Amino acid sequence: MAKVELEAQIEDQSQFPLGRVHSIETMGTVDGPGTRLVVFVQGCPMRCAYCHNPDTWSLQAGTPVSVEHVMGTFESNWQFYRNGGITVSGGEPLLQPEFVAALFGQAHARPAGRVHTCLDTCGYAYTPDSPERFDALLRATDLVLLDIKHADPEGHRVLTERSMDRILAFGDELARRNIKTVIRHVVVPGYTDSVEECEKLGRLIAPWHNVVGLEMLPYHTMGVVKYEQLGIPYKLEGVPQMDKGRIPELRAAVLRAMKGARASE
Ligand code: SF4
After folding, report:
1. Radical SAM core domain: which residues (predicted)?
2. To pair with 32 at 20 to 30 A between CA atoms, which of 80, 145, 146, 201?
3. Closest residue CA from atom 6 of ligand 1
4. If you measure from the C-alpha of residue 125 to the centroid of ligand 1, how many angstroms do you get, rounded to a whole number?
């Protein structure tokens, strides 16, 4: 197929749900329950200071991949996924909702048995003004891993260069639909490692009764080398790795504040 035809298909994903894909991991164990096929899609509108995958930012890069190709890869290794399923991560999957919806729809309709689907997202590409664009995707999603980068609007802007409004709107939509959601929060020294910020996070997520888990991820510097390779300045230069020993205390602060807020609902 000529490149120009492929480009045209990418433009009209409602008819031809090809995805722009960065890479596919066949034995993922950290993005959802069990062993999973993890599709890392290309393109992300956020600019998190600690992003490990700046090579996924551009939507123009990546490889056009069909749903059939992904499902074929799944079938080749299906024995490994009995207790797992398929996760779409990124980059930001909500930039390509038609592709992910088609993939998750196929996973649920698989003749040999329904496949568990998981969406790993920062929520920023959700558009509250046109929620219908995400309807098919959310109807085919079993679990969401939702990154909340910072609980404070100004802190969020500093850390990601973006507002958190649409992320909160997406969280509200997940709660309205009662889709199981795990909150993920990267703990960065000097940015998100205070008890106050964690308590604020707890109050923020308290109204979302669909939240079934909380993952506090200590910041590490393993992604720095990619910035050097891409010639992009690394904004957290000099920030040390997060002391893992403080994670239980901060996690407890989130849960304590969440329970407190729910008690006064
Ligand atoms: S949302 Fe994820 S992929 Fe996007 S910039 Fe942030 S860490 Fe990177």
Report:
1. 30-257
2. 201
3. 48
4. 11
Position 16 confidence tier, pLDDT thresholds 50, 70, 90:
low
Q: Which residues line ligand 1 (CB under 6 A)?
A: 44, 46-48, 51, 53, 56, 90-92, 122
Please give the class, per CATH, of domain 19-263: alpha beta
pLDDT for residue 5 = 45
Domain-by-domain residue ranges, the chain?
Answer: 19-263
Q: Report the separation in Å between the CA atom of 148 and the middle of ligand 1, taken as the mean of its atom positions.
A: 11
Q: What is the number of the ligand 1 atom nearest to the C-alpha of 56?
A: 3
> Per-residue pLDDT tens for 23-44?
999 999 999 999 999 999 999 9
Q: What is the pLDDT of residue 8?
A: 45
Task: Map the chain to HEC letters.
Answer: CCHHHHHHHHHCCCCCCCEEEEEEEEEECCCCCCCEEEEEECCCCCCCCCCCCHHHCCCCCCEEECHHHHHHHHHHCHHHHCCCEEEEECCCHHHCHHHHHHHHHHHHCCCCCCCEEEEEECCCCCCCCCHHHHHHHHHCCCEEEEECCCCCHHHHHHHHCCCCHHHHHHHHHHHHHCCEEEEEEEECCCCCCCHHHHHHHHHHHCCCCCEEEEEEEECCCCCHHHHHHHCCCCCCCCCCCCCHHHHHHHHHHHHHHHHHHHHCC
